[in-house]
Amino acid sequence: MEKLEETLNYLSKTTNNFKPEFVVVLGTGLSVFCDELDGIKIKYSDIPNFPSSSVLGHKGELLFCKIANKNCAIMQGRFHYYEGYTMQQATYPFKVFKKMGAETLIITNAAGASHKGLNIGDIILIKDHINFMGDNPLIGKNDETLGERFPDMSDCYSKSLRQIAKKCALELNIDLKEGVYLATSGPSYETKAEVNAFRMLGADVIGMSTVPEAIVANYLKMKTLAFSLVTNYATGVSDNKLNHKEVLETGKTQGLKLCNLIKKIISC
Ligand code: HPA
User: Fold this and answer.
1) Does the Cβ of 112 fall within 6 Å of ligand 1?
2) Ligand 1: does its nearest atom lie under 6 Å from the Cβ of 209?
3) Mean pLDDT estimate for the chain
């Protein structure tokens, strides 16, 4: 608790007591979201008790800004489990945002499609997840002031927010598909056999993030929305070999419509 207070004191001082209503987590290649936004930028490395982000394609910065007159906190770069952070470390920022007053979390990620029913560049509205990471961010002593020991997960990706997202997508002429996201720990991509197994389990898209964040947000009773940008076909779905550079490129070229969709949802 002292740790949280130290972080909160620092952020409240540097942002003049800014109270974010929305938190947005930008996935691989989606930093264009911030291109026309102005506000207070803070490096993760300057925030007491924040881990620091290092992975290629991620900035490691928080932006406090207004979108359509709503107070927002934008995470440019996230903390991945595969970088070696514990899940508890990787999800620490969400406890901070909740304490700052945030009620809604919008998560984005880059993901591989497990079947050809999806196309590269598609935006997938995540309706549920399969946690294949072999860990859970809520393991350990529970702080009852933050949330309950055994949180229900039946509305982890808020049904009411998903309805709003679908309406906004329709207005923007975006073909928004709904699907199930499966997370592995990474950092190696999946084998063909794993992708076949995951598809049979019900996964539409596969990635290495989002699940710890969504579990903690749900625990904190923050309403959560999450989107995958399909940057590639997962191993074996097409003949291509996977590489991180291509994932980044697709994020850059296809990410703009997802950014516009999120801004529209916030303005609703
Ligand atoms: N698998 C796992 N994570 C990913 C992928 C993938 O195919 N593409 C982008 N992130």
Assistant:
1) yes
2) no
3) 94
d(CA 49, CA 51): 6
Give the tokens for residue 154.
């039946």
**Pocket of ligand 1 contains residue 194 by CB under 6 Å:** no
User: Which residues of the chain carry a pLDDT beneath 70?
Assistant: 1, 53-58
Domain 2-267 has CATH 3.30.230.10: no
pLDDT attached to residue 56 = 45
pLDDT in tens, 20-35: 999 999 998 788 888 8
Statement: the pTM of the whole predicted model exceeds 0.70: yes
Q: Is 234 in the pocket of ligand 1 (CB under 6 A)?
A: yes
Which pLDDT score, from 0 to 100, does residue 1 have? 65
Residues whose CB is less than 8 angstroms from the CB of residue 23 and which lie 6 or more positions away in sequence, other chains included: 72, 73, 74, 75, 94, 97, 102, 104, 105, 106, 222
The DSSP result for 44-65, as a single string, is GGGSTT-----STT---EEEEE
